[in-house]
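so my prof wants the structure for this chain in the tokens format not the other one, which i didnt know existed until like an hour ago. anyway here's the sequence
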Amino acid sequence: MRVAGPAQHTAYRSEWGLLIRPLLGMRDWRYDFKKGECIMFHEDRCTVCGDCLSWCPYIEIDEEDARKEFKKIIDGDPSRVISECVSCMGCDEICPEKANPFSLIIKRQEAQGEFKRFEKAKQNMELAYSMPSEIRTGSEDGPVIDLCTVWPMTPHLFEGVLFEGATFLKGGRYFCGIGFYHIGMESPVEEHAAAVVEEVARCGAREIVCFHDDCYTFFKVKAPEFGVEVPFRVVSWPEFLYRRMKELEERIRPLDVSVAYQRPCASRYTPEKDAFVDDLFELIGARKPSRSFEGVRALCCGGSLVPRDYEMSNRIKHQNLKDAADAGARIMVTLCPMCFLNLRKRAPEHNLLLTTISDLCRAALGEIAIG
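here's what i got, hopefully its the right format
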């Protein structure tokens, strides 16, 4: 069905994916987020156990001090945690009571004006909303892929059979803004949420594939939390790749290689897609070695640490890459384009080949060679 897109552009509603949904069985993941359910800190659930802080790999703090500092945060008193938090979002996932400690920390950070330390990053993200936007129309039955504003970082990724017939949405009108969380701000994301969802919805697609993990988290979790209805099914990049590779299964040449997976920060909010990563690895013959830093214990790529503490950022990057190499990985794949950009220079120092998860799939199809 032909439908109108933004301005003079034209897009087509995609029926792609609906035919193969039975492949996913019961794993058609859905959440019923209510406004405030996750963006609000649940003090009634919090036992002030301190696990959210004592677990943190970026803040040096013992259990006793962790409890004291988090009590300060609850009471609105000054706490060193507010300045030392790198906004990896991990404490929400690690909290045993699901009290959403990061939801409180991010609000305290913004109230304290932590973002003022990152004025250049703040200005760049504010400008991102006004980047030129376009819809590159594909075939009527092709997927509709939201590239947000990150496609210029890795423009080569959208070539080959995986993306045949795809319609691409790109530019500032589709900017999710989740990066603001990394500088201690949430309000810009909420302020723009309704407009971004409306703009994407105008293309008329029943499903929207998100290239960037941040975008998937925005549509799947954050927008509904802000009370914005999302009128389309949002598809994560791992699910899209798994579904597409399943369609192309006869062309797959198993890689038979050990591959470490770099889990991005936004996956703290959407861990359900990790299962698609595992299934995708199995499908293409990539063995995921057991690592110290994976799953809930995953380290961030270090990107958000650069403006805060360059030395710590560098240490975390090397610690992460060494862990993968020591586990026997020959390749590390990234889901997030920012993770790729932040780790690519240091990966060779650990004899690791760094690539993206989509290029790993293309390698399994024989389209490209890795290394």
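also thought this was worth mentioning. The chain has three domains: 2-13+121-235, 51-99, 242-364.
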